[in-house]
Specification:
Length: 110
């Protein structure tokens, strides 16, 4: 895109265009990142998603280390952590069936 700018306004124009470009790039990157995160309760579907889409899966989890390790084995992925300030209600751990305290994020690491 071409623009005509007076010499006195050049610095502020370049700063504004640069700021807008950075904001747009950041917004598009976050949108692309978030579009690859999916919440699932089916282990086989989670494994398939990780193998095909190469995104991040969130699954209900009781918080126990044993269930977390077992889940990483079952989906053939790695645990990334849990979402911050996430309210979990109505979900059970996909491994042991007890009440889920959080969601575990899983992905393939390359």
């Amino acid at each position: 895109e071409r623009s005509k700018v007076g010499l006195n306004d050049l610095v502020s124009y370049v700063e504004r265009i640069s700021r807008e470009y950075n904001e747009n790039s950041s917004r598009r990157a976050w949108q692309a990142f978030k579009s690859r995160i999916i919440r699932l309760v089916d282990i086989s579907k989670a494994k398939e998603y990780l193998n095909t889409v190469k995104g991040i899966v969130e699954m209900p989890w009781c918080g126990s280390q044993e269930c977390g390790l077992k889940l990483t084995e079952l989906v053939d992925g790695d645990a990334l952590g849990t979402p911050l300030n996430e309210v979990v209600s109505g979900y059970n751990c996909v491994v042991c069936g007890s009440k889920a305290n959080t969601f575990i994020r899983l992905a393939k690491k390359y």
